Hints:
By secondary structure, this protein is of the alpha+beta class. The protein has helices at residues 8-12, 17-38, 44-54, 60-68, 74-85; strands at residues 2-7, 93-100, 105-110.
Amino acid sequence: MIKIFIDFDGTITKGDVGDLFFERFGGKAATQVVQDYRSGLINAVECFTREADACVISTEAEVAEFIDRQKIDPTFFDFINFCHKHKDGERQIKCFIVSANKRNLTVKKSF
């Protein structure tokens, strides 16, 4: 069996949804946090924590609207269809969507 691990941001989606989310809901404070990280003033865990703390979300509908505007790379569906054609037999292909958070890498979905 062949296992393929697929990153969500910038692979399945056209952009980095995490970065766009923090830019949208964290504003200038989140942007400054990223600058501090890139300058070596804070580590990745601290960066993620501060970005999350900077976010201001009014309603769940606001988040849903943001998510609905994210674009999926159309070639991703062709890739998944190819993998599904090889889901049985000797050369099975199993796909896993993974996502990183501030502490670890998480498998979000397998198919």
